[in-house]
Structure formats: C-alpha cells, structure tokens
C-alpha cells in the first residue's frame, strides 16, 4: 500500500495514502473526543488547518473528508472562539440594518475573499456577505444552506468576522419574516385542536394488528389513487 | 473538493462494467436467505455480538457486548473529589444533548421561564438531527392525516410501539412544524400558491424536509 508522511503535533507519521486526515490520525493512535462528530462531512466538527511543505498557502478542510498528502502538517480546529449575539427575531425586520446591528464587524470586511477560498462547502462566502448590504436575503439563505458551521471562514478572516454565524441569523430572519407560513400546517393544527382526528385515532388505538394492516392498505390505495 | 487521484481509476472501472451490470439479473433473496445473511454479517443480528448484562437495571437482558461493557464499567467519577454541597452550576433544568430533542427541550423550558443549562459533547447542533436529511415526520399536507401517520408509525415499529406515545407524536408533530416555522426554520416547499412542506420519504407519512 502506498504510504505518505504527515506531521501532527511535531511528530512525523507514515500513513496510507488513501486515508482521510481523520483516519490517518486515528490509525496512528490518536483518539478524538471533541473534534470529531458525524464522520460524514455534515456536522462540521472536524475542521482542520493544514499546511503542505513547500507551499505557502494554508490548506484547510474537514478531517473526515480530506485525503492526506505527502508532507501535510495538520492542526485540528475543534472550535474557534467567536461571539454569537442573540439572534432576535421578534420585532427585528429581515434587513441589512438588523444584521449589522447584531454584527457591526460586518463593516470591517476588506474584501480579501479568503473566507470563500477556505470554505469546504464551496459557498461563495464573501459574495454572500456583500449580499447582506443589498438585502438579498433569499440568495444568502439559498446559497448558505449547505453551511455546516465548521468555522474555517471565521478562523481565516483578517477582520474577525464570523460569516457562518451571520448567515445563520440571515436564514432565521428569512424563515421568520420573508417566508409565508404554510396554510396547510396552520389548517392541520386547527383541525387537531378542534378534535377532528380524535375519533379515528381512538378507533386505531384499540385496533389489533390485522385491522391496522387493513387500515394501512386502505390508506395506501387512497394515496395511489390521488 | 477534488477526488483523490486513485479514485479516477476506480471510476473508469465502474464505467467499463456498466453495460454488463445493467443487463445483469440478480435473483431476489428468499426470506430465509435474507435471515441467514443478516445473522452472519449484521451486527444487530449476529449472536456472538451479544452477551448478558450482569449488573444493574438491565441485569439478565441481552445487549451488544460494547453496550454491556459500558453499562458495567466503574464510574468515571470514582476517586475524583466532588463537593456536592457546592455545585459549579445551579439551574432549574439541565438538558443533556444538543441535537433537535435537547434543543427543543431547552427552548421550551426557557420559554416557560426556567433557568436552563444545555450540555453537549460537541458544539451545539453537531448532532444526529442535522444528519437526518430525509425530513421530519409530520402529517401536514391535506392528503395526509395524523391517522395515516399513526398507522405508518405503528406498522414501521412492528406493532410494538406504545400507542399513547404514537398518538402524542402524530398529533404534536404538525404543531412542532408550526413552532419551527416561527423560529425561522426554512423548509423545502412545493412550488404552488400554497406553500406546503413537500412529501419526502416514500412509505412514510408525507413529511416536510430539510431544516
């Protein structure tokens, strides 16, 4: 098996070339309790900052998704110290002013675009920061939906902005104020409150297995008839 | 994100065999064959993966070996000086776990005026909830109903669910979706005049999806 050399906490290790950063470190005996979550690239807990010997650029990524490389130095980033103000929704309109009020550092952005380059989810981070100035909340909500809050954008920002938190607030504001509530959901809750389903549920609760199977087949037939 | 270079060779192999695999007929397994495959390979079925719990509340029950070892393990607090007369935190409600369930519990308790502490191993939200991408089981659409959700759930649970709990689940679920809407949670919606969460999981009650 092809092997490569990685460096972690000042120590060199030979690891399989095909392993992820996480697999390689666990393979040589490290056990992570906090800097690892889902192992599937979804939870964002295992962000790391890497550096390849001979390169100047920092190579960030998720430890569970990134394949090791020869000469890769690895610094895990289990958390990054940022302040998250209260994401108030009540009485706060979904506007740039609201976001700026919570995150005044937004104005310090120097447009370096490092946040975009480090994002493991390929989110156009800086572009979306500037979209807040244009009140383009739907675009931000849509394009930042895949954000896993790994914090790499904040870690590399020279202006101490935490874009992932800003986008989270924008998504909440968008959901609360710009997206109409579902009529169907409201109607269903009304129906439940009015006791519309009580009788049917009473009957099902006292039904045996055969009756429930029969009810299931009935529902299925009705569904495919729709 | 680029693939590791070795993966491109693998992709070529998949391409090369595609025609043959598409034409391939794979016979269906009989229930007996399924069962023996499961018993041989599946950790939930393999008898050798289980043993009896020797102590405590679950004494005498069969459990996966790892779980049995955990249940029988000595307390991690042994030997650590603990002054219970002077706790580090004093709260009305301690919530352990920061996923969907824990967060909802904490928010509900807070809304009711309690002083809440939420403890979670990773960061808030690094949880199974964010990994469950199929949707939320809630009968919210007009062609769906709490009764359908009830039957689907009981049947999916092989008829061993506690009926009272399932009833609470199916009648509370639409209310929870409404609550989440108020909290600004974004749902996938069908694109018509009336925005409704879309059906997501075939075989389950139609559900809203996404977060």
Give structural attributes.
heterodimer, A: 226 residues, alpha+beta, Ubiquitin-like (UB roll), 3 domains, 5-stranded mixed sheet, 10 helices, 41% helix, 12% strand, B: 211 residues, mainly alpha, two-stranded antiparallel sheet, two-stranded parallel ribbon, 4 strands, 40% helix, disordered C terminus
- How many strand elements of chain A? 5
- Low-confidence spans of chain B: pLDDT under 50, at least 5 residues? 192-211
Mean pLDDT of chain B: 86
- Please state the CA-atom Rg of chain A, rounded to the nearest Å: 25 Å
Main sheet record of chain B: 2 strands, antiparallel
Structural class by sheet pairing and helices of chain A: alpha+beta
What's the number of structural domains of chain B? 3
Distance between the termini of chain B: 24 Å
Give Rg of chain B in angstroms: 24 Å
Give the overall form of chain A: flat
Percent strand of chain A equals 5-15%
What helical percentage do the residues of chain A reach?
Answer: 40-55%
Domains counted in the coordinates of chain A: how many?
Answer: 3
Count of DSSP H/I helices of chain B: 8
What does this structure look like?
The complex is a heterodimer of chains A (226) and B (211). In chain A, 41% of the residues lie in helices and 12% in strands. In chain A, α4 (125-133) runs antiparallel to α5 and α4 crosses α7 (163-178). Chain A contains ten helices and five strands; from the N terminus they run ββαβββααααααααα. Chain A has a five-stranded mixed beta sheet with strand order 2-1-5-3-4, covered by helices on one side. Chain A has helices at residues 21-27, 96-102, 114-118, 125-133, 137-143, 152-156, 163-178, 183-193, 198-205, 209-225, and strands spanning 3-8, 11-16, 47-52, 58-62, 72-76. Chain A folds into three domains: 3-76, Ubiquitin-like (UB roll) (Roll), CATH 3.10.20.30; 96-178, no CATH class; 187-225. Chain A is an alpha+beta fold and 226 residues long. Chain B is built from eight helices and four strands, in the order αααββαβαβααα. Chain B has helices at residues 5-16, 18-23, 31-41, 65-72, 100-111, 128-131, 146-156, 163-182; strands at residues 50-52, 62-64, 93-96, 116-119. In chain B, α7 crosses α8 (163-182). In chain B, β3, α5 (100-111) and β4 form a beta-alpha-beta unit. Chain B has 211 residues and is mainly alpha-helical. Chain B is 40% helix and 7% strand. Chain B folds into three domains: 10-69, no CATH class; 89-131, no CATH class; 134-211, no CATH class. In chain B, the strands form two sheets. Chain B has a two-stranded antiparallel sheet.
């Amino acid at each position: 098996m092809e092997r490569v050399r990685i460096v972690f906490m000042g120590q060199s290790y030979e690891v399989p070339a095909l392993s992820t950063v996480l697999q390689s470190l666990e393979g040589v005996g490290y056990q992570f309790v906090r800097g690892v979550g889902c192992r599937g690239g979804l939870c964002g807990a295992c962000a790391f900052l890497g550096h390849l010997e001979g390169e100047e650029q920092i190579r960030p990524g998720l430890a569970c998704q990134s394949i090791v490389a020869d000469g890769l130095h690895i610094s895990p980033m289990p958390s990054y110290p940022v302040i998250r103000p209260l994401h108030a929704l009540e009485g706060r309109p979904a506007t740039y002013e609201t976001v700026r009020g919570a995150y005044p550092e937004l104005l310090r952005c120097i447009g370096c675009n490092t946040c975009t380059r480090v994002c493991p989810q390929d989110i156009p981070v800086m572009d979306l920061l500037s979209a807040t100035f244009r009140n383009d909340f739907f675009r931000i909500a849509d394009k930042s939906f895949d954000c896993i809050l790994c914090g790499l954008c904040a870690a590399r920002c020279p202006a101490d902005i935490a874009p992932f938190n800003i986008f989270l607030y924008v998504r909440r504001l968008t959901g609360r104020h710009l997206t109409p509530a579902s009529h169907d959901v409201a109607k269903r809750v009304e129906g439940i409150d009015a006791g519309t389903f009580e009788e049917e549920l009473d009957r099902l609760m006292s039904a045996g297995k055969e009756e429930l199977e029969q009810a299931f087949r009935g529902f299925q037939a009705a569904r495919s008839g729709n | 994100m680029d693939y590791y270079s070795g993966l491109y060779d693998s992709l070529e192999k998949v391409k090369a065999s595609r025609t043959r695999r598409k034409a391939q007929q794979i016979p269906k397994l009989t229930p007996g064959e399924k069962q023996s495959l499961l018993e041989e390979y599946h950790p939930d079925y393999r008898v050798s993966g289980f043993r009896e719990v020797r102590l405590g509340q679950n004494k005498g029950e069969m459990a996966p070996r790892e779980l049995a070892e955990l249940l029988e393990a000595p307390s991690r607090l042994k030997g650590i000086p603990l002054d219970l007369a002077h706790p580090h935190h004093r709260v009305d409600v301690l919530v352990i776990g920061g996923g969907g369930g824990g967060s909802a519990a904490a928010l509900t308790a807070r809304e009711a005026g309690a002083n809440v502490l939420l403890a979670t191993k990773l960061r808030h939200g690094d949880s199974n909830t964010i990994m469950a991408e199929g949707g939320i089981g809630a009968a919210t659409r007009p062609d769906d109903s709490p009764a359908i959700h009830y039957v689907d759930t009981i049947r999916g649970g092989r008829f061993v669910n506690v009926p009272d709990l399932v009833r609470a689940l199916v009648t509370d679920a639409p209310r929870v979706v409404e609550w989440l809407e108020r909290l600004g949670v974004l749902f996938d919606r069908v694109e018509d005049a009336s925005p409704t969460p879309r059906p997501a999981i075939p075989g389950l009650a139609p559900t809203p999806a996404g977060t």
